[in-house]
Amino acid sequence: MNFISAKGSVDDVSILHVFNLLGYIIVLFHLIFTDPSTYDFPVILWWWKNVCPHDDTPTLHYINCGGGSMCLASSERYHLDDPRTKAIIFYGSSVYPDDLPLPRKVDHLWNLIHEESPMNNYMLSHAAFVELFNFTATFRRESDYPLTSQNIYSLNYLTDRKPVSTEDKNRKIREQGYAPVLYIQSHSNVASDRDTYVQQLMKYVAVDSYGKCLHNKDLPESMRTAEDSFESEEFLDFIAHYKFHIAFENAICRDYMTEKLMRALHVGSIPIYLGSPVVQDWMPNNNSVIVAQDFESPEDLANYIHFLNENDKKYEEFLKHKLRGGITNSFLVNHLRSREWQSHPSGSPESGDVNMFLGFECYVCKQIHVISRDRLLNSSFSRTANISHTGCPEPKKSTKSASNTKGDFYWTKVYRQQEDKAWSARRMVDSGGSNSSQFYRYHRTRSKTQQN
């Protein structure tokens, strides 16, 4: 029986290392000096080029996602017919049933990234449309690559800025006529019906409203364009002097939370929040936000605001997250520590960061390679997204009194119309439709069938 000597084993290992190193050098040389369009790697196509995380050139971009997962990426649609193309990434706010890559190819993964408001595309709140996608990155924690914490930039963002003292805030109210509550909003007619709620709230508590919606007070002259620079130091200092900050989302959906909530936590103004029904899961502790849905009516909420406004110690309990050890939500801490991507108040990535778009692109690249290996092993692939990845409830009026008014709520109609479109799009794709520009033929057919 022949045995390899200890010395022979070391030599064999050394030779293997040399070959691996040579292979790496050859691959590196090839990547540096060869046109990426010649690489035999899977191609990922960004269907809406405005969110493609690469420069706007016709060149295929090489991406190395680690673990042997290498791909090419582009936003040029002529790559749709490239046999190397294995995945398409759609942007939720700009995916339309009359602009789909049909006929759908059996080896194309359809993937969705949707971090913006659900009201931008309520088709995505219906299973018929969502199930057309294979992998997702959305504001819902149930998605494959969750983006829920996109506006929770870091734990330091919540803690580092020292809040204005309660005494100084009270002085602003007493001596300069500040209202205890701040509202800055210029986007009206939204699915959450937030202005109706705020208008009712104003009957019972003073609110300074600086935006176009329910406007009753002008911003200082130097900040008239503040809505274009909400992260400027001057603006942050201004809103920090208010005791309460209305942070109402434009749509109600599980895990959909925006920067207006996080900004209030950042400056140390207590957020009065209307939005995700599970917002507390993502807060620094269990007493840092006032949730409007917890109150029977705007009047009940106003009574609680008055109580806190008149009791400094109770008020300051909502600011404990600013103190050392004040962040006690272990779920939030662990999530931010394990998150693969980063985000910043400016919206621009810092050097060395992986933003959510690059992160999801690599996630898709890795899935392509996993599926490719599985198919070599004769394993089939049938994985699709489900409604928990994007689904949101039907919009409704924000208060009981408003719900009793005559006529359907505009956004309720939109939601139901989008459901009809979702089913029509599903029918078009499943039936092997070859031209999505003819979508409205399928849509009219479905509408007529319903009427009959």
From TrEMBL:
Keyword Phosphoprotein: no
GO MF: alpha-(1->3)-fucosyltransferase activity
Any one of the GO CC terms: Golgi cisterna membrane
Residue ranges with Basic residues bias: 441-452
Ranges for domain Fucosyltransferase C-terminal: 181-324
Domain Fucosyltransferase N-terminal: 42-145
Region named Disordered: 422-452
Keywords noted in UniProt: Glycoprotein, Glycosyltransferase, Golgi apparatus, Membrane, Signal-anchor, Transferase, Transmembrane, Transmembrane helix
PANTHER family tied to this protein: ALPHA- 1,3 -FUCOSYLTRANSFERASE, ALPHA-(1,3)-FUCOSYLTRANSFERASE 11
Family note: Belongs to the glycosyltransferase 10 family.
Protein name per the record: Fucosyltransferase
Gene source species: Magallana gigas (Pacific oyster)
